[in-house]
Write a structure and sequence with these properties.
Immunoglobulin-like, 2 domains, alpha+beta, 24% strand, 5-stranded antiparallel beta sheet, 8 strands, 3-stranded antiparallel beta sheet, 3 helices
């Protein structure tokens, strides 16, 4: 069975390309490769390195743009909403005006700014089962941390309930108390506020 030498993970793949490109300079002639062949292979490596770097840069830019978009909408719409609420209290305001301006909500209106999913958690033989309600979102992002820890760790983006966390306990003396929470997911970014937090003891 042939072993794969080209890594699957992007960071490791880039590192391999850099190493192989450098090794061509050091070992190519010893292997019997002619200079044009060495140059061509190094060019192929560099093109792949450049493509990976471009992809990483694009991902960072997209993440930054998404965060800026969400932050801007949350801040500016919050202020705009206050102004619209004040407008509705004016003596000159009528339902006709509200309909024409699109500021009358409908029953069951989905608001991505205030959206919050609901989750439950239980320990099972297959792992911690996190059940959630999408309530209009495309899915949820599941986070976890040890009770008392300051930072949340992203576990997964899940589009269908339930999510199973099959990580073993890491504390030397189980049970291990874990907290779980979730954020809504819509149009390729997180929405709303955090869900309720559940605690599950993992043995």
């Amino acid at each position: 069975m042939k072993q794969r030498f080209f890594p699957a993970k992007l960071a490791l793949r880039r590192a391999w390309l850099v190493t192989y490109k450098e090794s061509l300079t050091l070992k190519g002639a010893e292997l019997g490769l002619l200079p044009p062949e060495i140059t061509q292979r190094q060019l192929r490596c560099q093109q792949m390195i450049d493509a990976i770097d471009a992809r990483v840069a694009a991902d960072i830019a997209a993440k930054t743009a998404t965060q800026h978009q969400n932050s801007t909408i949350k801040t500016e719409f919050g202020e705009l909403s206050k102004s619209i609420t004040n407008d509705k209290n004016l003596n000159t305001y009528t339902e006709t005006i509200g309909q024409a301006m699109g500021i009358i909500g409908s029953d069951g209106h989905f608001d991505p700014l205030t959206y919050a999913t609901e989750i439950t958690g239980i320990n099972t033989p297959e792992g911690v089962r996190i059940t959630f309600k999408k309530n209009g979102a495309e899915g949820v992002r599941i986070y976890s941390r040890l009770v008392g820890a300051p930072d949340w760790t992203l576990l997964a983006l899940d589009l269908h309930s339930p999510y199973i966390d099959n990580r073993p306990a890491t504390t030397p003396t189980p049970p291990e108390a874990r907290e779980y929470m979730a954020m809504g997911w819509l149009d390729d970014h997180e929405i709303g506020v955090i869900s309720n937090i559940v605690v599950v003891n993992v043995v």
